[in-house]
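Translate sequence into structure tokens.
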Amino acid sequence: MPSATVPGSRYDLLRPGLYLDPHALLHEMRERAPVHFGPEVDAWVLTRYDDVGAALRDPRFHAVEEHKKVEALPAERQQELAPLRRIFTEWGGRDDPAAHEVFLRAMKKHFTPRRVSEQRPVVEALMDGLLGAALARGGVVDVVNDLAHPLSMGVVCHLLGLPRDEVDLELMLEASQSISQLLEMGEPDQLHRSQDGMLAMGEFLAPHVDAARRGRGSGLLEVMAGPGSALRYSDAEVVSQGIMFTVVGYHTTANLLANGIQLLFDHPDQRALLQADLSLLPAAFDEMMRFHGPVSTIRRMVLEDVPLRGRVIRRGDTVMLALLAANRDPAVFSDPDEFRIGRRDAHRHVGFTVGPYSCMGQALARLEGEVFFRALLTRCPHMAPADPTPDWTVFRPLGRELRTLRVHPGGR
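Result follows.
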């Protein structure tokens, strides 16, 4: 095991408070130790743009790594977490490249820019309703919990074909937050909370999958379970895919939306540029993804020994791909620590990842971002933060997300 043969790390990636500003450390790692084993995270850490992109495209870097944390537990605990392992292994067929390709063929055509553009009226209506309700209540508006999270979850529920009057949004949001614990460090308590969320979400989705199976569904549930479906999924497998969409299709987008507003507060000159010319929104979206995207790191497991920059990553080792470091690589982005919405190369970010497991919903995320930022910047042009400091919490090693973002919609 690497942790038994590699000396203690000089780069403590779990240092308290590091997630608030990790980039000085990551710049040093990128320069001096671009392939670094961190015993505190029990993983190799890649920080250079080229290495991260290559690993994302390399079939030797397997997309399913989470099971290692389960397999390290005593047999009795492994059995307790059997539903968790089954569900996340089934997500998008990602444990089997051939099954993943079948999933992509069936799904990608529903996420093309043209198909996604047809969802604009739905996204606009959801945002208009949420913002209108928040403003009608008077006082401060919480961008995170009043707007970003319910908007993103509402969009996903619509895509799945869940009848709006039957969606328990509070349950969906709470369960998804629990499931996202799987994307953290994978400690036993996190795994159990994740499984509890999956089971709660699965119980909600099951009757809707059954309705789709009987020809009474719509949306992606009908695509996966309807009578004419090209996918040969069992009901349990369809539920697993539904759970996946409600997590990866919601959580990251919601965080991006909230992070983006905070970035505009932190950089008033860039906010002024954007408010003066909303045609810059697509470029601003990419710069938000590059500068502070919602996913800081992702994990892979290598299937065979991989030599890289004078080191050897052994078969079975975990590799942490530092997307946030790749997106600040000065070899690719000039002045990478500057937030500039007019940056011409921002689109080269790896925030959606690249390769066979890249985010197929990125066109939808862009649409949500365009609608969200346009609505807030036009209806609340003078909005200002209500609290003196952002309410950050750690998410994954090196990452952060906002628990709340309270604003005065009319300014102070």
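Note: The domain at 67-261+351-368 is CATH 1.10.630.10 (Cytochrome p450).
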